Automatic annotation (TrEMBL):
<dbReference type="InterPro" id="IPR002328">
    <property type="entry name" value="ADH_Zn_CS"/>
</dbReference>
<dbReference type="InterPro" id="IPR036291">
    <property type="entry name" value="NAD(P)-bd_dom_sf"/>
</dbReference>
<comment type="similarity">
    <text>Belongs to the zinc-containing alcohol dehydrogenase family.</text>
</comment>
<keyword id="KW-0862">Zinc</keyword>
<dbReference type="Pfam" id="PF00107">
    <property type="entry name" value="ADH_zinc_N"/>
</dbReference>
<protein>
    <recommendedName>
        <fullName>alcohol dehydrogenase (NADP(+))</fullName>
        <ecNumber>1.1.1.2</ecNumber>
    </recommendedName>
</protein>
<dbReference type="InterPro" id="IPR013154">
    <property type="entry name" value="ADH-like_N"/>
</dbReference>
<dbReference type="InterPro" id="IPR013149">
    <property type="entry name" value="ADH-like_C"/>
</dbReference>
<dbReference type="InterPro" id="IPR011032">
    <property type="entry name" value="GroES-like_sf"/>
</dbReference>
<keyword id="KW-0560">Oxidoreductase</keyword>
<dbReference type="GO" id="GO:0016491">
    <property type="term" value="F:oxidoreductase activity"/>
</dbReference>
<dbReference type="InterPro" id="IPR020843">
    <property type="entry name" value="ER"/>
</dbReference>
<dbReference type="InterPro" id="IPR047109">
    <property type="entry name" value="CAD-like"/>
</dbReference>
<keyword id="KW-0479">Metal-binding</keyword>
<feature type="domain" description="Enoyl reductase (ER)">
    <location>
        <begin position="14"/>
        <end position="332"/>
    </location>
</feature>
<dbReference type="Pfam" id="PF08240">
    <property type="entry name" value="ADH_N"/>
</dbReference>
Amino acid sequence: MPAVKAIVATDPTGPLTVGTVIRRDPGPRDVLIEIVWSGVCHSDIHTVRGDWGPVQYPLAVGHEIAGIVTAVGDEVTSHAVGDRVGVGCMVGSCRECDNCRAGQEQYCERGFVATYAGVDEDGTVTQGGYATHVVVAEDFVLRIPDALPFDKVAPLLCAGITTFSPLRHWNVGPGMRVAVVGMGGLGHLAVKIAHAMGAEVTVLSQSLRKRDDGLAFGADHFYATSDPATFTTLARSFDLILNTVSAPLVLDDYLGLLALDGTFVSVGAPPEPASVTLFTLFTNRRRFAGSSIGGIRETQEMLDFCAEHGVVPEVEVIAADQINKAWEKVVAGDVRYRYVIDISTLAQG
Ligand SMILES: [Zn+2]
Ligand SMILES: [Zn+2]
């Protein structure tokens, strides 16, 4: 397979430029995908900037991929040419460990193969979805239901599953009181999904600036965390708090909002260690937890759920040459609520 056109980083701090990445020749169990839409996740920026450790350049990032199958290997049974498909944060795992067998590939005991900046089974560094094509093993390729709008679906592949998985794991449904901390790319989907699951949803946002949006997305209540009264008004009132922000929080304040047997689960994390007064956990037998993306089966379940319940990400479509500006805005928190790159503008540009 020849090199394919891609938006690449050539160093940690410089602008992204148009270049190429090499894709492997599709094997018998591989699917060749022509990428049509590619979501922009804050993780893309952290990875390129080296915030999470050194990476090799040039690097194409992007792990919210929506595209069309253009070729399949001889042994592929689950996807066919012409299908609309998605790829998220993983493109492989050992498939043999207990966690993989349980459909929890994100917790593969040998570590899953990340969609970009990961080490592939052949030893090469994986390259992500800011590109015209990708080759992925069929068992890591998701079906995109017809009911989901193609241009908006990509963010479900990372932001969607990252919030769906903990909501599902903690059995969110009617009668549950769920708080979502932060209403950005992840948080806005958490609100929509928790609402679709039937929960009573409260948004805890820094200010009331996004209140109208939050209520339109299905939130029942919206509070500003900059107002200290929020933490007394809402004390002991949630069964589950899903934290989607990466800024450091005064965790004791948030844990104090949990009712009996309530859980605070974080999918956002500041780089520094956090501090918790353990006495806060004794009260109401509270739990403090984390969660990482979701398994492949669960990701398919999430896509099907979103199709059935009309859960669709809020996106701003950009052309390939707007990516550097878009990254600046993501860093500034100035996006409503996810950028999606129209990859046709890269293919033709
Ligand atoms: Zn992501
Ligand atoms: Zn495994």
